[in-house]
Amino acid sequence: MSDDLVWRLGARTPGHDYGIFRTETVEADHPRGGPRKRFSLIACADWVNVIALTAKREVVLLRQFRPGTSAIYVEIPGGMIDPGEDPAHAAARELREETGYTSERWRPLGVVAPNPAIQGNRLFTFLAEDAERTAAATPDDGEVLAIHTAPLAAVYDQLRTGAIDHALVVAAFAHLMLADDGQHLPR
């Protein structure tokens, strides 16, 4: 990393705690001698996403309202990793809680930084193959979910047309396409 790009960060100053995230600020010295700057940050837990494929190569999907855009989104199961929890355990937990589906075949697909300009957390994406519904969904109080499945090829069509445009879901399917030289590309 080139030293002339690295801001020298001071101590973080806590802001407000909103439950699922906290705000912070940090003063930083300009790497090339420019003015000192205060950066606003969002501190939140790491997250997981799960692409769950049934034996029929259908993807387990959710529809839910998102207040940030006041719209309903097609998404994959996922959520926050609890403190001290292993990402793979969190992925299995979120899939089971949100959909009632479970799987014995798990594989990590990749990790991304959701928004490194203001966040320091990571998103871990997992593939659950041969997923099957084994229980009723038990979503959190703040989750109102509609669960459905769709053929993998139809999901890729929705990604291409923008019908699925949640950035973290798009990133998850990019990881799937890159994971194994196209084994999971639609047929």
Q: Describe it for me?
A:
The structure is a single chain. With 187 residues, this protein is α+β, with helices and mostly antiparallel strands. The chain has 2 domains: 3-43, no CATH class; 47-179, Nucleoside Triphosphate Pyrophosphohydrolase (Alpha-Beta Complex), CATH 3.90.79. Helix content is 19%, strand content 39%. It contains 3 helices and 12 strands. It has helices spanning 87-99, 152-161, 167-179, and strands spanning 8-17, 22-29, 37-43, 47-52, 58-66, 71-75, 78-80, 101-102, 105-112, 123-129, 132-133, 146-151. It has a 4-stranded mixed beta sheet with strand order 7-4-10-9, with helices on both faces. The longest helix is centred in the middle third of the chain and has 13 residues, at 87-99. The chain is globular, with a radius of gyration of 19 Å. The N and C termini lie far apart (42 Å). The mean pLDDT is 94.
Kindly give the count of domains.
2
Shape: globular
Distance between the termini: 42 Å
Strand order of the largest sheet: 7-4-10-9
Tell me the quaternary state. single chain
Mean pLDDT: 94
Q: Just give the CATH class of the largest domain.
A: Alpha Beta
Order of helices and strands: EEEEEEEHEEEEEHH
Helix tally equals 3
The largest β sheet comes out as:
4 strands, mixed
Helix content: 10-25%
CATH architecture of the largest domain: Alpha-Beta Complex
